[in-house]
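Lab notebook, bench 4. Continuing the backlog of folding jobs that were queued last week. Each job is logged with the same field layout so the records can be merged later without manual cleanup. Today's entry covers ZF-HD dimerization-type domain-containing protein, a 98-residue chain. Filled in by technician R.K.

JOB TYPE: sequence-to-structure
TARGET: ZF-HD dimerization-type domain-containing protein
LENGTH: 98
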Amino acid sequence: MRKRQVVIKRVVEDSRNSTNSAVAYRSVRYMECQKNHAANIGGYALDGCREFMASGDEGTNLALVCAACGCHRSFHRQDVQTEVATESSSSLYSSIGS
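JOB STATUS: finished
OUTPUT FIELD FOLLOWS
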């Protein structure tokens, strides 16, 4: 069985105007499992799974199930990182005018 880490990258925002443009990329990593396995008896117990590893290939139903603990991906804590790439063209316009 192959184990791999799931990282999803999506374009969140793409705002472009005449002076500058910005693109924001959001990457999500799924970390430790937060499922309370003792909730039905009134207790609190975690299974100790440290990081989500997909059971199957991307795009299948098994990609949402953790190979380590068997829980759905939604039980794992999300670590969201946002990166914004900006490009300013104001220096180009100022050099044309002089």
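OBSERVATION: The two ends are 64 Å apart (CA to CA).
SIGNED: R.K.
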